[in-house]
Design a protein that fits this description.
With 359 residues, the protein is α+β, with helices and mostly antiparallel strands. The protein has two domains: 173 residues, Peroxisomal Thiolase, Chain A, domain 1; 160 residues, Thiolase/Chalcone synthase (Peroxisomal Thiolase, Chain A, domain 1, 3-Layer(aba) Sandwich). The protein contains twelve helices and 15 strands. The strands form five sheets. The protein has a five-stranded mixed beta sheet with strand order 1-7-6-4-5, sandwiched between helices. A four-stranded mixed beta sheet has the order 8-13-12-11, sandwiched between helices. The longest helix has 23 residues. It is globular and about 60 Å long. The termini are far apart.
C-alpha cells in the first residue's frame, strides 16, 4: 500500500465574545493586574455566555475549519473532540457536535487527556490516515473551564479561559503532516490537577458542593516542576522520530498555560523565546483548545506560514505530556519557499516569517 500522510487543509477557532480582564478580577478578588501578569503572563481570558457550551463552541470551530478546507461536514470520515469539559456525562459531546455540523452517520468520539487532548487527538488521527482507514478527519480541541473553577479562588480562577480550535486532516501521498510525535503519562501526579468531586469516586453531594470540591484544584508548584522537566525531553523525542533538529524548526507552539513555564523551557532548550508562538496573555489557559487556538491565530495573522515546520508541545492533567513535529504543507512546498527566499525573490524568511527585501 502506498504510504499515506495527513495534511492539514483547514483550521478554525472560536472564542466567546465576553472578555474578563485582570482589572475586572481586581474588583472581586484580593489580586491585581500586576500580580497576575508577573506570575502567569495572563492579561485576559474569554468566558462563555449563558447558552454557550462545549458543543456549541466546538461546532463553530469545526465549521470554520471545514470552510477553510472547502469541505462539507458530510465529506468527513471521522470527528474527534478532545475535551475534559463535555456538556453532559452522557451523551458524548462528540455526537452532539457531529449532529450539529450535519455530518450524518459520521463516526465521532471524545478523547480525554486534559490539556494534552488535542495533541493526543492529532496523533490518533494521523494513525487512522496512515493505516488507510479514513481519508478526512476533523480534530477539535475545546474546553469550557469557566464553569469548573471557583471564581473566589485567586490561585485558579485567574488561570483559565474558554475556547475551541479545530483542524481538518486529509490523506495525501505527498510527505507532510505529523512526522514525529511523543505521548506520555505519569499518573503518580494525578492529584496535582484534579476536580475531586466531579466523578464516580466522590459523587457530588450537598456536602461536597458546599465545600466546592466539584471545582478544579491545582498544585501549581508541582505542575510547574513537572512541565519544565518534560517539555524539552518530549520535544527531543518527537524531533528524533522526525529525524530533524531544533534548528530546522520555524516555530514552537507550546501549551499556553504560564509564561514562566514557557520561558523556563526556552532557557533549558537553548532556544530564543521569539521562536515560541505565545498568545496566552489574551486567552489564558484554554486546556485542550490551547494549541489549536494558537495555531489558528498564527496562521490567520500570517505570522505562521503553512510551509513552516512546527513543533507542538503540551502538558497537563493526568499528569500527561505530548509533542509533535508538524509540517502542514508538503515538504516540496517548503523547499520551494526556502529556495525563493535564498534567491532573493520577493522576500526572505527569518524564523518562518517572510519579510520584504530589495530585489
Amino acid at each position: 500500500m502506498q504510504k499515506r500522510y495527513g495534511r492539514i487543509t483547514g483550521w478554525g477557532a472560536y472564542t466567546p465574545s465576553k472578555v474578563v480582564t485582570n482589572h475586572d478580577l481586581e474588583q472581586a478578588l484580593d489580586t491585581s493586574h500586576e500580580w497576575i501578569v508577573q506570575r502567569t503572563g495572563i492579561c485576559a481570558r474569554h468566558v462563555a455566555a449563558p447558552g454557550e457550551t462545549t458543543a456549541t463552541m466546538s461546532t463553530e470551530a469545526g465549521r470554520r475549519a471545514l470552510a477553510k478546507a472547502d469541505l462539507d461536514a458530510a465529506d468527513l470520515d471521522l470527528i474527534i473532540v478532545a475535551t475534559s469539559t463535555p456538556d453532559h456525562l452522557t451523551p458524548p459531546v462528540s455526537s452532539q457536535v457531529q449532529h450539529a455540523l450535519g455530518a450524518a452517520n459520521v463516526p465521532a468520539f471524545v478523547l480525554v487527556t486534559g490539556c494534552t487532548g488535542f495533541m493526543y487527538a492529532l496523533a490518533t488521527a494521523q494513525q487512522f490516515i496512515a493505516g488507510g482507514m479514513y481519508q478526512r478527519i476533523l480534530i477539535i480541541g475545546a474546553e469550557l473551564l469557566s464553569r469548573h473553577i471557583d471564581w473566589t479562588d485567586r490561585a485558579t480562577c485567574v488561570l483559565f479561559g474558554d475556547a475551541a480550535g479545530a483542524v481538518v486532516m486529509e490523506a495525501t501521498a505527498v510527505p507532510c503532516g505529523v512526522f514525529g510525535f511523543d505521548l506520555g503519562s505519569d499518573g503518580s501526579g494525578a492529584a496535582h490537577i484534579i476536580a475531586p468531586a466531579a466523578g464516580t469516586a466522590e459523587p457530588v453531594s450537598a456536602t461536597t458542593f458546599a465545600e466546592g470540591r466539584q471545582f478544579i484544584r491545582m498544585n501549581g508548584r508541582e505542575v510547574f516542576k513537572f512541565a519544565t522537566r518534560v517539555i524539552g525531553r518530549s520535544c527531543q523525542a518527537s524531533l528524533t522520530q522526525a529525524e530533524l533538529s531544533l534548528d530546522e524548526v520555524d516555530w514552537i507552539i507550546p501549551h499556553q498555560a504560564n509564561l514562566r513555564i514557557i520561558q523556563s523551557a526556552a532557557k533549558s532548550m537553548k532556544v530564543p523565546l521569539d521562536r515560541f508562538y505565545i498568545n496566552l496573555e489574551k486567552y489564558a489557559n484554554t486546556s485542550a483548545a490551547s494549541i489549536p487556538l494558537a495555531l489558528c491565530e498564527g496562521l490567520d495573522s500570517g505570522v505562521i506560514q503553512p510551509t513552516d515546520t512546527l513543533l507542538l508541545v503540551s502538558f497537563g492533567a493526568g499528569l500527561t505530556w505530548a509533542s509533535a513535529v508538524l509540517q502542514m504543507e508538503p515538504v516540496a512546498a517548503k523547499l520551494m519557499s526556502r529556495l525563493t527566499a535564498v534567491n532573493g525573490v520577493n522576500g526572505q524568511y527569518k524564523n518562518g516569517v517572510k519579510t520584504a527585501v530589495p530585489l
